[in-house]
Write a structure and sequence with these properties.
The chain is of the alpha/beta class. It has one domain: Rossmann fold (3-Layer(aba) Sandwich). It contains twelve helices and eight strands. It has an eight-stranded mixed β-sheet, with helices on both faces. α1 crosses α12 and α4 packs across α5. The longest helix is centred in the last third of the chain and has 21 residues. The protein is globular, with a radius of gyration of 20 Å.
């Protein structure tokens, strides 16, 4: 691993995105990163762009689509993606809600609004599983919206709730494309944005991580941190032949991960825990295991 790689708590970062295959521990990781950053930054926001978000379950607190202060903190806020676009009675609502990619578009508006407001020192994004996130990060071009018909006047009126109450219909197209350009600039600025990939030491999660990292490189989005979750320790499996076989299988993939990414990534290996990562104290304990990604105290 290069000693020149920046740490996640670098003061220049404005966005830290956390992603990977479903079920690998993205939410635990993003919540833990947010808590770790709250020790050093004045205002931290955790956003879920996953419609099936469970950051509320992790913190054991109800969150909405507006920033809410996390219990026990004075400088950490969290918010979840709206599950659906609000039905405002428009006759085109059904057409809009069934559009391919509308969930990703819904998540994008949160991304854009955070660029627009910039009220926080750093924003941590708990993203949806890999495929959705790849679509989310393929920011549409201005010509896409022009050619798709999505932003004709009637459609603009129907989705006005996504961009907030202060947008006139006639202004939405230019407003959105301007926000999108700002988002693209930040996403591709390695000083301001980085992507943390979370995986398990298994075939499918590693395969999806390879796809994701290749995609990030193609999109010019910086990534240099891996979190390998649920790693079996040798002392855990001594009395269990089945567990020992799983341990040996994991060791093979851990070797593959080191060979593929050991030189260019900071890697945090999280042992399989005997507790759920649920509640502030459990999240704090998990965050301590992310030390390889954070600068030395």
């Amino acid at each position: 691993m290069s000693s020149e790689l920046p740490f996640l708590d670098s003061p220049t970062y404005k966005w830290i995105m956390v992603g990977g295959k479903g079920g690998v521990g993205k939410t635990s990781t993003s919540c833990s990163i947010a808590i770790a950053l709250a020790k050093k930054r004045q205002r931290v926001l955790l956003i879920s762009t996953d419609p099936a978000s469970n950051i509320g379950d992790a913190f054991q607190q109800h969150f909405t689509s507006s920033p809410t202060l996390v219990n026990g903190f004075t400088n950490l806020w969290a918010m979840e993606a709206p599950e659906t676009i609000s039905d405002n009675g428009d006759e085109q609502f059904e057409q809009i809600s069934s559009m391919p990619g509308i969930d990703e578009f819904n998540a994008l508006t949160q991304l854009f609004n955070s660029v627009d407001k910039d009220d926080y020192d750093v924003v941590v994004y708990d993203t949806a599983p890999t495929g959705h996130t790849m679509r989310l990060l393929q920011l549409p071009t201005k010509s896409f919206f022009t050619n798709s018909g999505l932003f004709n006047p009637s459609m603009l009126s129907s989705i006005s709730s996504l961009l907030g109450p202060n947008f006139d219909v006639s202004d939405k197209f230019n407003r959105l494309t301007s926000l999108m350009e700002n988002a693209r600039k930040r996403l591709t600025n390695p000083q301001e944005c980085t992507f943390v990939c979370v995986l398990l030491p298994e075939f499918l999660p590693l395969y999806e991580t390879e796809r994701l990292i290749t995609f990030l490189q193609e999109q010019n989005i910086e990534s240099h941190c891996l979190v390998v979750n649920q790693v079996l320790q040798e002392q855990m499996v001594e009395e269990c032949p089945f567990c020992h076989k799983r341990y040996l299988n994991q060791q093979k993939y851990l070797t593959d991960i080191e060979e593929l990414y050991g030189e260019e990534f900071r890697i945090a290996k999280i042992p399989l825990l005997d507790e759920e990562v649920k509640g502030i104290e459990a999240i704090k304990r998990f965050s301590e295991k992310l030390a390889p990604l954070m600068s030395p105290q």
